[in-house]
User: Fold this.
Amino acid sequence: MDHPLLARTLDILERLIAFDTRSSESNLPLIEYVRGALHGYGIESTPIHDASGTKANLYATIGPKDRPGLCLSGHTDVVPAAGQPWTVPAFHMTRASDRVLGRGAADMKGYLAVMLAMVPRFIDASRQTPVHLAFSYDEEVGCLGVRGLLSQLAAAPVKPLACIIGEPTSMQVAVAHKGKQAYRCCVRGLAGHSSLTHLGVNAADFAAEFATYLRRTARHLRENGMRDAAFEPPYTTVHTGRINGGIALNVIPDHAEVEFEIRNLPGDDPAVVIDAARSYTEHTLVPEMRAVHADSAIEWQPLIDYPALADQPADAWLAHLACTAAGNPRTRTVSFGSEGGLFQAIGVPTVVCGPGSIEHAHKADEYVTLAQLSQCLAFMDTLAERIAQRPLHATSRATDRSSCN
Ligand SMILES: [Zn+2]
Assistant:
């Protein structure tokens, strides 16, 4: 059955989808819209801009500001739509009988629309325990934007008791995901005629050797590394995604690149793998290159770095709270990343739960069903009732702590 706030949610979602908030673009028009909507309810919000001033996070507290509350968080940016076979305009919400389509409908403007539609209810419910709303930017390009918000929160006198990030999980409560680090390694050798291989430094050869090293590392982790059956696959992975180099068959390549990533289980430190790989390039490959040409090098460029979200026993009260609100006692892990590990890193217990499916995200004709939006609204109703009844902090932790698997 449709939730009474569904119509309002769809009106807001229509506005949100119409903002072209691809990560390459400014998100300020969307942020101004959200600020205005909150202001209309008497809620002040604080933008936290990036260095260029063209993007911003937004943070608002509904209810008392002198104590910690429940944070609802989502990113405002979306992935591009160009080159995908869309049958409807990507940055315009299209209503169909059981769903709405548009870039970000699932990932994750649907959740943002629910957050905003719920504001009047949160105003009533948050007399004792506040609700914090967080809107970030540049999540899709490596969880970059939210760091500015989190460094402010980490230093603030009051930071949230807990956070629910509404990435699309089909309204199932996700308590963990792997972390990710990605790098581009640029190999600089020495060009020459391909008949005189001994006079050049073949960058493609060294790139291939490094990729082979990474493959050995991946095998070692698969066979001997940490395991966690909650994940698919249940071990830390290393993956080379792109190799290129060389301009012609008869020229020794003087430049090559390897892009690789590591996706680590919570508790498995990716720095161990990265340090060993750096050491391999510095102490094995580069000396061999420099024996021929002193200017040879392998340069590392970090591409992406976000931590894993760990299922922490001390945060079981939050998982239980979210499971109760979602009407589903089972928690899960997700294969995609989120800002959750960054919230957790500043001491804010975090779970991921939002409307829509990740299967429909980042694709042509991205959609969220009306049923999922209604389910998310009902989830928020339960959370609002819960915080209206009794404080979320201290005593509630004991009450809310019971196992949910
Ligand atoms: Zn997302």
Remarks:
- The chain is about 35% helix and 20% strand.
